[in-house]
């Protein structure tokens, strides 16, 4: 079994347990459920930097990245740095994240927040809304076309933006549909962890112009962004490069200042 299959199998068990512990009616009572969401897609369309900065403590590919940062400080720092949005990993077992991280980020900034999760059930979209997310991620590699349609349409009914992530042509071809807002190309193969920006470059021409294009993973310098922009990318998801430092917000600030030059 590859790591993605393992994460997904564990996620099914976890979500079944969460559903039995917290009923949907309780999620819907969250004060955040009525909060008007902020569109990351619209922010990326008008930004000249397009940085989506991630809160990421550890990962299957890198083990520990940084366990010492406080999510409130990271969220405030990213907002001060001028990022377009923040991605918050909420998986506990493989990434050391939680829904509480999302809630704390929500309490600390007004940025559009992406719930970075392995979504396999509509229930997780209700959780995303209840804990303050504005955007959800759907990963084509773990979903059927019918599930992508069902989850993306449900997300839109909750006024959440949808970022659909692909890694190859087959995943892209099965996924294109009007209920998506952003098409993300993950430069990391989630089964082997190989990283190549060429993945974003080669798939870009196949992504219809109706979607904002986001390049994800393995971006560690300004040159990478400059090399992706001519391929139509308007969003750049960066985790480790900021989180591996003592001050993720400050690192993002310096990065954005250099990018603007
Ligand atoms: O990062 C991993 O090792 C990983 C492994 C398996 C599934 C997902 C994984 N990462 C999720 C992400 O998409 C990244 O956290 C995100 O794109 C940022 O990547 P990076 O800038 O390389 O930290």
CATH class: Alpha Beta
Which compounds are bound in this model? Answer: ligand LARABZUK
Uncertain segments: none
Cα-atom radius of gyration? 17 Å
Task: Give the SSE map.
Elements: H1 3-21, H2 24-28, H3 40-46, E1 51-55, E2 58-59, E3 63-64, H4 71-81, E4 85-89, H5 99-108, E5 113-116, H6 122-130, E6 135-139, H7 145-157, E7 161-166, H8 169-175, E8 182-186, H9 198-203, E9 212-216, H10 222-228, E10 233-238, H11 240-243, H12 248-260
Helix pairs in contact: 4-5, 4-12
The structure holds the ligand O=C(O)c1ccccc1NCC(=O)[C@H](O)[C@H](O)COP(=O)(O)O.
The ligand O=C(O)c1ccccc1NCC(=O)[C@H](O)[C@H](O)COP(=O)(O)O binds at residues 3, 54, 56, 59-61, 186, 188, 190, 193, 216-219, 237-241.
What does the model show?
The chain is α/β, with parallel strands linked by helices and 261 residues long. It has a single domain (3-260), classed as Alpha-Beta Barrel (TIM Barrel). Helices cover 43% and strands 17% of the residues. It contains twelve helices and ten strands. The strands form two sheets. An eight-stranded parallel barrel has the order 1-4-5-6-7-8-9-10, surrounded by five helices. A two-stranded antiparallel sheet has the order 2-3. Helix 4 packs across helix 5 (99-108). The longest helix is centred in the N-terminal third of the chain and has 19 residues, at 3-21. It is globular. The structure holds ligand LARABZUK. The ligand O=C(O)c1ccccc1NCC(=O)[C@H](O)[C@H](O)COP(=O)(O)O is lined by residues 3, 54, 56, 59-61, 186, 188, 190, 193, 216-219, 237-241.
